[in-house]
Structures are given as C-alpha cells and as structure tokens.
Amino acid sequence: MENVLGLIGMVIFIVATIGLAAAVTYLIxxxxxxxxxxxxxxxxxxx
Length: 47
What we know:
Layout: H1 2-31, H2 35-39
C-alpha cells in the first residue's frame, strides 16, 4: 500500500509541475508585449 501511495503522489507532483509550467507560460505570453504582431504588415483582404 505504501508503494501505491508513493506512486500516486509522484503522479500528482508531475501533473502539478506541468500545470504550473503551462500556467506561467500562458501568463508570460499574455502579459508580455507582442512586438511580432506589430512588425508585420497588414495583409490585404480580397473582397
């Protein structure tokens, strides 16, 4: 039973670490200024 609890704890730790990394990445992308979008010339729309 102790091995099963350790395995479950390790899985929870891995999921929490990946989730935290994804959240930080999402926040950095949203907060940081997006200079790439401003540099591109506007594309002409065909009507």
